[in-house]
Design a protein that fits this description.
single chain, alpha/beta, Glutathione S-transferase Yfyf (Class Pi), Chain A, domain 2, Rossmann fold, four-stranded parallel β-sheet, 13 helices, 8 strands
Length: 290
C-alpha cells in the first residue's frame, strides 16, 4: 500500500516527533509514505485572514501535486488538513475566481486541478477498514487502562460539511476508539473539540493561556492523566502553556500512542516533549520507555 504524504511546515520543525511517529507507524504496517515533491506551505494559519487568493492558491498547488501522484494524500497536521479540504470545497463550487485560479495553475504548473485528490487525515486513515485490517493483531493493550482525554481541537471537525470525517462532529469518536484499542480508557469530557487558541499564542499569549487552562481543567475533572491530540498547534499550546500551578498533564500525539501499542521505540519522540510523559508511562508498566 502506498500513500502520498504532506507533512506541512510544522512537522518539519516544531512537531518533528509527530512526523517521526507517523512515518514509523505506517512503515511498521507496511505502508509506504511518499512525500510530495516540491510541496509548499498551505497558508495555515494566517493565509486565510491576510490574502484570500493565497489561501486558495497555496493548498491548490499541493492538491495538484497529489492528484498527479495518483495516491490518497495523508495529512497529519489538522490545520493543513483543514486548509486543503477548504481549497477542495472552493474549487468544487466552480466560481469565476476558482476557474481563474485553475487557469493560473495551468500556466504555473502545466496542470489544472481535476478534483480527484483524496485528502486523508491521520485519524481518518487509521480508522479506515484497510488500515484497521493492518492493525489487527499488531496493536497491544499496553496502556493498562490509562485514562486519556482525546482532544480533537476545532479544525478536524469544523466546518462539518467541509472538513469533518466524523459521523457526529460535535461528539467525535474515532480517536477515542483508537486509544481504547491501545489499552487506554478514553474519558468522556466537555472540551474535546474546543479551540486552544492556535497561533494566537504568539500575538496574544494570554488568550491561549486561558483557553489551555480551561481545556486542561476539563481533562482533569474527567479523570484524565494525559491528553492526546492530532494537531501540532494544539500539542504545542497544551504542552507549553500549562501555568496554573498544578502538576502538568503530558500531551501526546495519537501516532505516538499507536507506536507504543505497536511495540515501537517511542523514546526519541517522547524526549522532545516539554512535559515529560515517560514517568507516567513507566507508572503504567512500560519499562522500555526510558
Amino acid at each position: 500500500m502506498k500513500l502520498s504524504y504532506y507533512p506541512g511546515c510544522s512537522l518539519h520543525s516544531t512537531a518533528a516527533e509527530f512526523s517521526a511517529s507517523t512515518e514509523a507507524v505506517f512503515r511498521h504496517l507496511g505502508v509506504e509514505l511518499q512525500e510530495l515533491e516540491d510541496w509548499c506551505c498551505c497558508g495555515a494559519t494566517s493565509g486565510h485572514s491576510l490574502n484570500s487568493y493565497l489561501s486558495h492558491a497555496l493548498p491548490l498547488h499541493n492538491l495538484i501535486l497529489a492528484e498527479a501522484a495518483g495516491e490518497d494524500l495523508l495529512v497529519p497536521c489538522a490545520a493543513c488538513y483543514n486548509s486543503l479540504k477548504a481549497a477542495q470545497a472552493f474549487m468544487a463550487a466552480g466560481s469565476q475566481e476558482a476557474l481563474e485560479l485553475n487557469e493560473w495553475a495551468d500556466q504555473a504548473l502545466g496542470r489544472q486541478y481535476q478534483g480527484g485528490a483524496k485528502v486523508r487525515h491521520v485519524i481518518d486513515m487509521l480508522a479506515d477498514p484497510t488500515m484497521q485490517g493492518l492493525l489487527e493483531g499488531r496493536l497491544k493493550p499496553v496502556l493498562n487502562g490509562l485514562p486519556l482525554a482525546a482532544y480533537y481541537g476545532c479544525l478536524l471537525t469544523r466546518p462539518p460539511k467541509v472538513a469533518s470525517f466524523e459521523a457526529n462532529p460535535e461528539q467525535p469518536q474515532l480517536m477515542d476508539r483508537l486509544l481504547a484499542r491501545c489499552g487506554a480508557t478514553p474519558v468522556a469530557w466537555s472540551h474535546k473539540n474546543e479551540c486552544c487558541g492556535a497561533s494566537l499564542a504568539i500575538p496574544q499569549p494570554q488568550v491561549v493561556v486561558e483557553l489551555v487552562r480551561k481545556i486542561v481543567a476539563a481533562a482533569r475533572r474527567a479523570g484524565a492523566k494525559a491528553i492526546v491530540t492530532a494537531c501540532p498547534l494544539c500539542q504545542t499550546n497544551l504542552d507549553s502553556r500549562q501555568v496554573n500551578g498544578e502538576e502538568a498533564l503530558p500531551v501526546f500525539f495519537i501516532t505516538e500512542i499507536i507506536g507504543l501499542a505497536l511495540g515501537l521505540n517511542a523514546t526519541p519522540w517522547l524526549k522532545k516533549h516539554l512535559v515529560d510523559p515517560r514517568p507516567l508511562l513507566q507508572q503504567q508498566g512500560l519499562r522500555a520507555v526510558s
